[in-house]
Specification:
Order of helices and strands: HHEEHHHHHHHEE
Radius of gyration: 30 Å
Structural class: mainly alpha
Largest sheet: 2 strands, antiparallel
Strand content: under 5%
Number of domains: 2
Distance between the termini: 44 Å
Number of helices: 9
Oligomer: single chain
Helix content: 55-70%
Shape: globular
Strand order of the largest sheet: 1-2
Number of strands: 4
Length: about 300
């Protein structure tokens, strides 16, 4: 991170107007005997112009610095929000586990970024949101539902591979720390496969069976009631519900644009379904293999 010091305008960028010197003259001259004579409108106008010029020069200096900073803004956004997230998670897990967790989220989000670039869509770098994960921004998710599904599944796919690498290293080294980190990574990717918007599973359903959005949304309601105070589930219910309703209303228009967007060949539908189900199975097995029971300071691995 860089600290930018505020720049002041140079002497050549602003004109300093000296104040008029008060002169007391004899009263016989007929001039004012108390204080300096009032400044003429020309001098007042000149002072205003000089002050305005100084303000403009200072703004120009700031604007120049901002323009030079633009190429680094994405990196600063990613790095800055990542550090904030690490600090937030450290309050509960310690900084080592928090850093590993944020790194696994980054790997997941980069799967989306890579997939968007393959679709020819410019995407932002990940922006981390403490206790909510991370987000990327793009103008669209593809030209059709199949492209949307590819982008959606790319995150859990790469994220699962990242968690799998951590699990493998943890198993080879006998590190319960890495196994626990891998377990959380598997869980996060599995959670994202819930078939409801705006989660990745909901993106896959756009190509498989859009009606599954309602099934996923209905399943979240008792889950949100069961897990009291889950802010993430409440957000998904609110924003996901609005998004599902909006997209379903658009589908009901039966316009040519909507028909073209959701037109997916049967073989592609089967392929998306195979990847979706395969990820769920693989992640469930990964969680089972890395699950560690902790009791009274002792860990017990599930074999």
């Amino acid at each position: 991170m860089f600290l930018m010091e505020p720049q002041l305008p140079a002497a050549s960028e602003a004109t300093i107007v000296p104040t008029a010197t008060a002169t007391i003259v004899p009263a016989a001259t007929g001039e004012a005997a108390f204080g300096p004579p009032p400044r003429s409108w020309r001098k007042r106008a000149g002072g205003a112009v000089a002050g305005g010029g100084a303000v403009v020069a200072k703004f120009a200096t700031f604007l120049k610095g901002a323009v030079l900073l633009l190429p680094k803004l994405k990196l600063l956004t990613t790095a800055g929000t990542a550090l904030i997230s690490v600090a937030a998670y450290s309050l509960f897990w310690g900084w080592q586990f928090a850093a590993g967790f944020v790194l696994l989220i980054f790997v997941h989000e980069m799967g989306h970024v890579i997939a968007l670039k393959r679709e020819g869509i410019k995407a932002s770098t990940p922006m981390f949101i403490p206790f909510l994960g991370a987000a990327i921004f793009s103008r669209s998710l593809g030209d059709n539902a199949l492209a949307e599904a590819r982008v959606g599944l790319a995150g859990p796919l790469l994220g699962s591979l990242g968690a799998g690498v951590v699990a493998l290293v943890g198993a080879l080294t006998g590190s319960d720390f890495l196994l626990a980190l891998a377990y959380v990574g598997f869980f996060v990717n599995l959670f994202n496969l819930l078939p409801v918007l705006p989660l990745d599973g909901g993106r896959a359903m756009a190509a498989m069976a859009p009606w599954m959005w309602f099934v996923g949304f209905a399943a979240l309601i008792p889950l949100a009631i069961l897990i009291h105070g889950s802010f993430i589930l409440l957000l998904i219910l609110v924003f996901g519900g609005r998004e599902v309703w909006r997209r379903w209303q658009l589908r009901k228009t039966r316009s040519l644009e909507q028909a073209a967007y959701y037109r997916v060949a049967p073989r592609h539908r089967v392929l998306v379904g195979a990847v979706y189900v395969g990820l769920i199975v693989a992640l469930a097995i990964g969680m089972w293999q890395t699950h560690i029971l902790v009791s009274a300071g002792h860990s017990f691995r599930v074999l």
